[in-house]
Amino acid sequence: MTINLFKYAAPTAFYxxxxxxxxxxxxxxxxxxxxxxxWGFFETPERLGGSNPxxxxxxxxxxHVPAAWMSMWLYLVLAAWSAIGLVFNTRLxxxxxxxxxxxxxxxTFIALWTGAFWGRPSWGTYWDWDxxxxxxxxxxxxxxxxxxxxxxxDDTRRADRASALLAIVGLVMLPIIxxxxxxxxxxxxxxxxxxSSLSNIESNILTAMxxxxxxFWLYSFATSFARLRGIILLRESDSGWVRKIVxxxxxx
Amino acid sequence: MLKVFGCILGRDxxxxxxxxxxxxxxxxxxxxxVSLFPLGVGSEREMLRELGPGVVWVAxxxxxxxxxxxxxxxxxxxxxxxxxxxxxxxxxxLVLAKIVAHWLLTGLPLVFIAPLVGMQYHLSDGAxxxxxxxxxxxxxxxxxxxAIGAALTLGLRGGGILLSLLILPLxxxxxxxxxxxxxxxxxxxxxxxxxxxxxxAFLLLALLFAPLASAAALRISVE
Lengths: 252, 223
Prior knowledge:
The complex is a heterodimer of chains A (252) and B (223).
Chain A: H1 11-42, H2 61-88, H3 91-123, H4 131-152, H5 156-170, H6 173-181, H7 203-235, H8 240-251
Helix pairs in contact in A: 1-7, 2-3, 2-5, 2-7, 3-4, 3-7, 4-5, 4-6
Chain B: H1 2-18, H2 20-41, H3 45-68, H4 70-77, H5 80-86, H6 91-106, H7 108-120, H8 125-152, H9 159-185, H10 193-222
Helix pairs in contact in B: 1-6, 2-3, 2-7, 3-7, 3-8, 3-9, 6-8, 6-10, 7-8, 8-9, 8-10, 9-10
């Protein structure tokens, strides 16, 4: 069976499809997040590291790292949909970029917030001007800038295209953020934040962390689609099919 | 093509020199911001020496941002901008000429006023030279990146505040390496080399991409 994916580039076709997909993504996200919370709390070691172990509080990792990953990934998604929208001039791409942005901003905020709580017991400070923390903060500003620019322009077409261009320009910051975490040469970047060390992590911790990442990813799908449906209804509000939906909702 | 570039450059500079207050306002804004800090944080020699590079660079960032709003606004209001877009010349080139003019009028004066500011903060002679050099390499980047934001927020209500929200995050690398160079120069002048390499790399990248992005942004804003 082949599915014509381009059919779903039309808001008319995508609206009901997204509606059917949301419960699946949402439900799976809930299951995965609950599973990884269970696994992270009860199946993992109580302390981390050798001579100066991190005790129970290291479990923040299960929220912190997946949220940081999602914050970068969603910016990439945002910029990709913006680029597709600018190149092919498709309405839905801009709406998609628009729908992803708040979720990305929230994940960036969560990464910063949980990082602060983790920093307090392990480094003795909520915040430090370390390249990794600072670059994540810049990412947060980029999301806020995108949302602010879009909401400042009344003309939808101009708002879409202008903020899409901004998202693509902001993309230059993404490698900086990525390599400030995965620094190729540790001597080059003295920092408080530890390097990414996925390869030598304990397998139970890794399981919980990756499940949480998958859960967060599906959650992003669910929320973005829900937001997207709202945006579609708002923008297509003078078309016939939207009016039919509104009438049907009003009756039930 | 060079002729068009020179034409726009000459026009913008002539226009600005007819109204000198615009240029001087930016310069005096820079001086006032820099002079406020010692009054706010205390005037101890050692502390000022440590704060100096960062304060000067932050003030340069704000001053260049303040002037950005005017980069396209006047031409947009009287329709010149639309005429420029209708000419057969590449828009990116025209934008680049406008950016260069903007930098000559707002960035370059900051470079020359820097020694005065350096003395206010008791910086050593070597550090002052490095500060001038880092501003000379860094302020063009600010004008180039800022042009993108100025083009995107063209004609919007509250454009100035929005502009700062969009552009300041992108300025951060320039700020870090620009003030870093000056701070390092107080310890060992030779160690500033990597900072200048990085600033130079930023400048080349910005020179290549910023006019194109600004031109695209102008097309979006004016259409």
